[in-house]
Specification:
Chain lengths: 258, 220
């Protein structure tokens, strides 16, 4: 079972709208510190929407409205006096398609730190960030090269390094490996396992086996008749994959619908 | 909602049917072995020996098919438990088949001898054994844990009969040492039938695991 006292992010009675459309309904869940939580479910079930509510990424979508609360370090990130930019520094995000800046590998890491007022040794920060994402050995001799010259898997690890460079406490990943080949995917999965020593991770994935392999907890979402996404069940990944409580979870993870 | 992975679910249903067929062979083998013993029918005993090869082949083929399903379909949750259960069930059935073989060999061994006593309890034990295989496999195919638990109670009957046979044969041996050879053979038969019931009970335990994911002890 999850330990509520260990939650770093707690979502309470969350409803997320896009215009009139209710995309996620009455969601309650928590991310336990230094654990990996996987959000799974069929397409359109609101799992990415819920992920994006955790660092106010939905604010950037026109017509988006959030009701309910998301507590991070004891504070509701949707409070009026909270700066969403500061929220996103502490709760970083990695996307499905690797999206490095069209700049050098070095600059990809340095840029975020610099605009956040980083005063320390930039070379050191670049090196440690690349080491944390197991990329250093592969790129240390070509830091001035354009990041777009890297392979897709390397680009994705660079994006994770970039997120890590601003020292967040949570990393949100939206299908970080779905555009990658199996070897690059395995490297990302190993990396996630390393990163959870330092960070709390939430990951949206369509790959059920991936959720089974890398996560400690799994939250399963579905859509209701009005196409609103809702949380069906959340539990330890072992329990969800071995003996889920809800028949719908069982049917989905067994691939009986989706 | 439209069913997907139909092929996979059909494969599982088909393997279930193969397990039931294997069980029918095991049920028949213990019945025949007992009949061979009681009627001192060596050709029937030979049939049991040949039939065991069929049972062994069933085990291998079912096991290979289940292995392929695990490799290609990555089963989880209830389906994974059912596949694991199936693997366990067939290995129990295979060993039950071996006990039939042991009984058939015993039948051959004493086929030319005059019985030291009429065989009454041993056939009863075999009948309970056959009933157990039949019913526990019905429970397996229906994923019916309550039925599996109730089938396991039949094992108590077999155990009681085994103790009774044992006491009885001991008396014969004490009274007349010339009975020892046949009495020990019959004692072994009783022991194999008792083991046969234990294996059926193990299957009951796996059927419970299939439904609940929990291991329970029915062999008490």
């Amino acid at each position: 079972m999850q330990k509520e006292s260990e939650y770093i992010i707690t979502i309470k009675n969350l409803n997320q709208y896009y215009g009139d459309f209710l995309a996620a309904k009455d969601v309650n869940l928590g991310l336990e510190k230094n654990k990996v939580t996987a959000l799974i479910g069929p397409s359109g079930c609101g799992k990415s929407t819920v992920l994006r509510t955790m660092n106010r990424m939905n604010d950037l979508i026109k017509g988006a409205g959030t009701k309910g609360e998301v507590f991070f370090e004891g504070k509701n990130i949707y409070d009026k006096n909270v700066d969403p930019v500061e929220v996103r520094r502490k709760i970083g995000m990695v996307f499905q398609k690797p999206n490095p800046f069209p700049k050098s590998i070095y600059e990809n890491i340095a840029w975020g730190a610099r605009i956040n007022g980083f005063q320390g040794n930039m070379d050191e920060l670049v090196e440690t960030s690349l080491k944390k994402t197991a990329l250093w050995e592969e790129v240390k001799d070509k830091l001035k090269q354009n990041a777009l010259s890297l392979s897709g898997g390397q680009q994705q690890r660079l994006c994770i390094a970039r997120a890590v460079a601003v020292q967040p406490s949570v990393l949100l990943m939206d299908e970080p490996a779905s555009a990658l080949d199996p070897i690059s995917t395995a490297k990302i999965e190993d990396l996630i396992d390393e990163l959870k020593q330092t960070y709390t991770i939430a990951i949206v994935t369509h790959n059920m086996q991936q959720a089974g392999r890398i996560s400690d907890y799994t939250a399963f979402f579905m859509v209701d008749e009005e196409r609103a996404g809702f949380l069906v069940e959340m539990g330890s990944t072992d329990q969800i994959f071995f003996n889920p409580s809800d028949k719908r979870t069982e049917a989905y993870i067994s691939g009986r619908f989706g | 909602m439209k069913e997907i992975r139909k092929h996979y679910h059909e494969a599982i249903a088909e393997i279930d049917r193969e397990v039931l067929k294997m069980g029918a062979h095991v049920e028949e083998s213990v019945g025949k072995a007992m009949s061979a013993l009681v009627n001192q029918d060596t050709s029937l005993a030979e049939q049991v020996l040949a039939g065991d090869e069929v049972i062994n082949r069933f085990e291998q083929q079912i096991q290979d098919r289940l292995t392929v399903l695990i490799a290609t379909e990555q089963p989880v949750a209830g389906e994974l438990r059912h596949i694991i259960t199936s693997l366990k069930v067939i290995s129990q059935l295979e060993r039950m088949g071996d006990h039939s073989v042991h009984i058939a060999k015993a039948a051959v061994k004493i086929a030319q001898e005059k019985f030291i006593k009429s065989l009454i309890d041993l056939p009863k034990m075999a009948e309970y054994g056959m009933k157990m295989v039949h019913e526990v496999l019905t429970a397996f195919s229906d994923r019916d844990k309550d039925k599996a638990i109730s089938v396991a109670q039949l094992d108590d009957r077999i155990d009681e009969l085994h103790n009774q046979v044992w006491r009885e044969l001991l008396t014969y041996m004490m009274a007349d040492v010339s009975t020892i050879n046949q009495a020990t053979t019959l004692l072994f038969v009783s022991r194999w039938l008792e083991r046969f019931g234990d294996h059926a009970t193990n299957i009951s335990e796996w059927v419970v695991y299939d439904s609940t994911g929990e291991h329970i002890e029915l062999n008490l």
